[in-house]
Amino acid sequence: MNGLALLAAGAPLLFAAGLATGRLLARRAARGGPDPGTPVERATFRTLHTASVAAPPLRAGLTPDAARKAVRGLRPLFGTAALGLTAEDRLLAWEGPGRHHTEAALERVRQVLDTGRAQTFAVACPDPDCPVRWGAAAPLTVDRRVPGALVVLGAGEPGSGARATEEVARWVSVQLELADLDRTRTGLIEAEVRALRAQISPHFVYNSLAAIASFVRTDPERARELLLEFADFARYSFRRHGAFTTLAEELRAVEQFLELVRARFGPRLEVTLRIAPEVLPVAVPFLCLQPLVENAVKHGLEGSAGRGRITITAHDEGATARIAVEDNGVGMEPGRLRRILRGEDGPTAGIGLRNVDERLRQVYGDEHGLVIETGVGAGTKVTLRVPKYRPGVHSAPPDTPPGDTGPGNAEPHDTGPAHSEPPDTQVPGVAEPGDGGLRRLDR
Amino acid sequence: MNQTYGIVAVAAAVLATLVIGSVGLRVSRTTSDFYVASRTVPPYLNAMAVSGEYLSAASFLGIAGLVAAEGVQMLWFPVGYAAGYLVLLAFVAAPLRRSGAYTLPDFADSRLGSTAARRVAGVLVVGVGWLYLLPQLQGAGLTLGLVTGAPHWLGGVLVAVVVTLAVAAGGMRGITFVQAFQYCLKLTALLVPALFLLLAWHGDPRPAGALEEPPAFRRHTQVTVDSTVRLRIEAPLRAVASGAVDGRAYDGAPLALDPGVHEIRAGTTLRFPPGTPVPERAPGDGGPGAAAGWAAPLSGGEEEHPLYATYGLICATFLGTMGLPHVLVRFYTNPDGRAARRTTVIVLALVGGFYLLPPLYGLLGRLYAPDLLLTGNTDAAVLVLPERLLGGTAGDLLGALIAAGACAAFLSTASGLTLSVAGVLSQDVLPSLGVRRFRLATLPAVAVPGTVSVAAGQLPVAGAVGLAFAVAASAFCPLLVLGIWWRGLTPPGAIAGLLAGGGGALTAVTLTIAGPPAGGWAHSLLAWPAVWSVPLGFLTMILVSLATRDRIPPGTDAAMARLHLPERPAGRDLPSTRRGVTTP
To answer: What SS3 state is found at A312?
Structure first.
């Protein structure tokens, strides 16, 4: 029995070890690869390889961390004593000896930054052991700005080393421009998410106010309650910060919305809720449910004279929550719905559905878009599946400055600016300062 | 045990679970009930659910068995199982909830932003889950075997199949109400019989004289030995045997054994007259022994280094609770960090209250069911006690109640574990399986521990759970504590620490279960790895993080702020937008 169990435990281990060894050998064989042939070819290959290894860190921009890694990767290109990168006239990274010359080098860098031209200079050192005899500084140019410079200190004669400095500086500049592009793209995605922010429909505002007006004489108390409901709902919808909220808060907004709709339609609207309490703390995109309910009301009630029934369900599915909104209304032809979701059916049709769908795909990926089951006369059921955890999705951020909203516009049901990193950001830390800055500008 | 009662009770427990599961959703028909429907789970209910999922077969059956067999030092098991929540409360509960993570790999991801760390944590979660499932299936085999007379492996396989189907079909998804009900059922199933047993013990005309002396059979007792055992006998012993003893066949013939070691072949039935001291299993026979020092700490049991083993147990259980995957997912149900902390306090009370009962069963089991010490099947002590002590219909009914509780114990824990393991398997370990991957992942989640459970034969239930705790403590205690309280943690450090601590403990535990038998310090070090593996995990994590200081993730400050600042400023309580309430 023991031997059997040992065998059972040992076999997969042995298999895994074999697999790993095979991989390693294969990789080593690939690296050795076919010989590049002539010395020139070999030198070209080596140079390109060095450059490509040094490129990825620079894509993060001119930060000390990236500069250190890049300098370490680039130094073999020169075979000289030392290599440094500066941002403005601050030294970011230095690799190699001759650190006592940095002050002199930085003086040159200042001139380079002013003129935008590369410089070669001789270095006289009292220390006989110091290998440094010459230096070169070349500007890094990004978008006609000069954010920094590349400094090379070398032995012997400057010669080709100085030219190489300029070339490498140009190459680094290209990487930095790419980094700038990355940042722009991130900002674009953020802006897109912000633009996709759902808005309450003008029709709803008009209809609600009209319905409230009809109660002002007959039932002033009801009218007052409805107005407060309207105020709450508007406050929730107009909140400017944060792309995420909790399902519980979203349901409260839906409650207020339905209360206002019932003021208009009275007992013709029936609403059933089946909510698993476990999923109420799940973070969901802000106003992702209300447009679906609005849609259900529109299709369930406005097209027919009968009773409309809306069912909202939320189930716990382990790592995801499944939320569905169902109505018994007129339904829709699936082909037309597909066109609406693709945005081909005119600008006004189904804005709410498409908006929610796009935002869900933006945040959670394409497999988390809306699932819609419908047919003519068969009602509509819209289902969304929200993961309980996704990096960067937080409904309640900690950085709420207490009391930053005045007493007049204090928001009791607002836990503060919910902020998110844009979904496609590769480096989570990069987007955050920008986000915070924008928020501060808002106020 | 009366089989009809037992089967009816187990069926009723399963049926009640299903019914509560199906009506567990809050249904409301009108918008005025919206407020009720959108109220989050209150801490007391969530705490009951956490306790319900946590109290496993090991707590329900295993502790009593260990206490009966090995003595009072085993009381560290219930103490440790409960005290783990104190550590969880102080260091982990609220920050973990604020991190927004649902599983442990989620936490690694959100704190370190590293996919590799996420993967490693995922693999270790699966390891801990499998180790924890193993004793649940064993407990299931034991209980169903006693209730229906089926062989042990059949019960385990049956429960494995039921849990797989239920989880894959979407039922038994961790519904709070169901788990809260399971807690009530387990508590009732131990508390009510305990009251009757105490009364019966009190009314016993000849209560046990002293706990120090070796236990003796109180009436004519017939014991059938399932597997061949070697007994050490101190004084001459008389019994009636049918079967083979010391290689000689007996057929209802009287037997007199001299002091020394004797071998009793499997299937042999022995009948002892009242007053006979219970023979002790010879050391090295795998079973419990050393009856003499039962009531004195650190003297009983077969452990060669009892002090080291006790520290190993304390280390594993105190620090391991925070690494149990099926417990942590429950904390996500809390709306915020404060509620998470409140939940943990209530769990401490609920679990602590429950753990007062198993040691009582252990003590009574030693007094009234000493034959279990001979067969080594001490995990059955809880199940057979009502029949032994009370007898008649009352005994049968109470026995059936206990069987229902045991059934709830292994079903709730096994389904919760399967759910967690399958979730992590489908998300982090085998992400290539596609959309239906969760259902596919359920199969390996149960099949692996099921197979090992059948192949490995009998393990002491509570002991195997202790091994799962040791791995959880070594891997996840450093990750959670350092991740929450230390800015300097880096992804390479976390991965190295997880591999050194968790991997080391996992290897030691695997060797203990499946490896060749070892003796002396080698055995102690492998069987109680937490003493060395938890510090190893911490040390590796800290040193490697310090060595890779440039790899501190860029979002660390924001992540730390999120973990430690309350969600809403003090004074602003739960948001309330009920009509009129917020009117100035």
So the answer is: strand
> Residue B535: pLDDT above 90?
yes
Q: Where does residue B512 rank: exposed (0-12), middle (13-18), buried (19+ CB within 10 A)? A: buried
Is residue B33 in a domain?
A: no
B 3-62 residues with CB < 8 A to A: 24-31, 33-35, 37-41
| Residue-range domain boundaries for chain A | 48-192, 197-393+415-442
Interface contacts A/B by beta carbons within 8 Å: 186
- Shortest CB distance from B37 goes to which of A229, A256, A275? A275
Q: Quick one: which of B192, B191, B183 has its CA closest to B409?
A: B183
Q: Which residues of B touch A9 (CB under 8 A)?
A: 510, 514-515
Q: Do B323 and B269 reside in the same domain of the chain?
A: no
Q: Which amino acid is at B407?
A: C
* Cβ separation A280–B516 shorter than 8 A: no
In a domain, B365, yes or no: yes
Distance CA A239, CA B201 (A): 68
Test the B interface: residue of A251, A261, A278 with most B CBs within 10 Å: A278
- CATH T-level assignment (fold) for domain A197-393+415-442: Heat Shock Protein 90 (3.30.565)
CA distances from B222 to B233, B390, B401 (A): 18, 18, 25
Which tokens in the block code for residue B328?
């942590």
Chain A residue with minimal CA distance to B578? A252
Domain presence at residue B211: no
Residue type, A167: E
Can you tell me the distance from the alpha carbon of A218 to that of A216, in angstroms, rounded to the nearest whole number? 6
Chain B from 65 to 84: CB within 8 A of any A CB = none
Using left for φ > 0, alpha for ψ between -120 and 50, and beta otherwise, residue B67 falls in alpha
B367 with B512, same domain?
yes
What pLDDT is stored for residue B570 in this prediction? 52
**Helix spans in B457-503 (H):** 461-485, 491-497
Per-residue pLDDT tens digits for B173-197 = 557 888 888 899 999 999 999 999 9
**A81 closest CA partner among A134, A124, A125, A145:** A134
B327 vs chain A: nearest CA distance in angstroms?
Answer: 13
Query: Residue A258 has which token pair?
Result: 């339905």
Q: Is the separation of the CB atoms in A380 and A296 below 8 Å?
A: yes
B513 contact residues in A (CB cutoff 8 A): 5
Radius of gyration of chain A, Cα coordinates, nearest whole angstrom:
32
Residue range(s) defining the domain that contains residue B228: 221-277
**Cβ of residue B572 closer than 8 Å to a chain A Cβ:** yes
Residues B273-286: tens digit of each pLDDT? 777 777 766 654 44
Chosen for mutation from A255, A279, A414, A426 (greatest number of chain B CBs closer than 10 Å) is A255
Residue of A13, A237, A246, A389 to mutate when probing chain B, most B C-beta within 10 A = A389
Amino acid at A90: R
Report the number of distinct structural domains present in chain B.
2
Segment 353-412 of chain B within 8 Å of chain A by CB: none
Q: Rounded to the nearest 10 degrees, how much is the dihedral formed by the CA atoms of A223, A227, A229, A233?
A: 150
Chain A CA closest to residue B452 = A5
pTM: 0.75
pLDDT in tens, A128-182: 777 788 888 888 888 888 888 888 888 777 777 778 888 888 888 888 888 888 8
| Domain at A48-192, CATH class | alpha beta
Model confidence band, residue A400 (pLDDT cutoffs 50, 70, 90): very low
- Give me the mean pLDDT over the A313-341 stretch: 84
Give whole-number Cα distances, A115 to A112, A119, A138, B193, in Å: 5, 10, 11, 92
B327 and B266: one domain? no
Nearest-CB residue to A255 (from B34, B562, B564):
B34
Q: Find the distance separating the first CA and the last CA of chain B, reported in whole Å.
A: 67
